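Curious: explain these tokens?
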Amino acid sequence: MTPMTRRLALLGLTSLAACGAAPRSAPPGPPGMLFRQRFDDADPVDFATPRPAQFPVHGIDAARFQTRIDWNTARANGANFAFIKATEGGDLLDPSFKDHWRGAGRSGMWRGAYHFYYFCTEPEVQARWFIRNVPRRAGDLPPVLDMEWNPQSPTCATVRPPAAEVQDQMRRWLAIVTAHYGTRPIIYTTPGFYEDANLRSFTGYDFWLRTTAKTPAEAYPGQPWRFWQYSATGLIDGVAGEVDLNAFNGSQDAWQAWVAARAIA
């Protein structure tokens, strides 16, 4: 049995598990077991329908800003997956990536890595940097390409190529990363960047959409989506401070089918 097959078999053993505090010394259940989300929010939003709570599979994303995570406890409280920041541009490795990556893996939750794209470095350089730092492991979630402008960068803040050039750079990065990991990456983006880069015309990829005040249908009319980042102020037992919250667009069965089709083989 391959690692991927074994993980999917474990996933099929359970439906949505009951909530409970995770033992700090061990994962709260077999790899892939789903837990009902018990999140809070420091700045809650009254969304229109569908509300995030209507989706059964939730997760988080983490970077160096999350300085302390008890992954077992976070998972037991509904963090069923985690997207973890790995790289930025062509030479920056998130200082917390290795710890977060190992912690999420040991907890038994689904995990994936993301790359924050910079417009002052060639996409081939950035793709090779991501591959150098993110292991290829059967059963992990697809890589993520984080596409937004770089306003905090001292060198790239004003570099804003036109939509056609943005999309060309994206395709070059995506082609290299797809070939290495054997699965198409996910595209993460924000409303402003989505409009500027005309990403409604960028098809063939799963989208992870940030919108913390409106539903995806309101913020990205007509855009199909797989993940919704609905809060930047989430509160979860096991995570020190605030953390981004995300929902998967579908049922538990849809999650299992998507992972079976899209995880790294």
Helices lie at 3-11, 71-76, 97-107, 123-133, 163-181, 191-196, 216-219, 252-262. The two ends are 12 Å apart (CA to CA). The domain at 57-256 is CATH 3.20.20.80 (TIM Barrel). Strands lie at 40-41, 58-62, 81-88, 92-93, 110-116, 144-147, 186-189, 207-210, 227-235, 243-248.
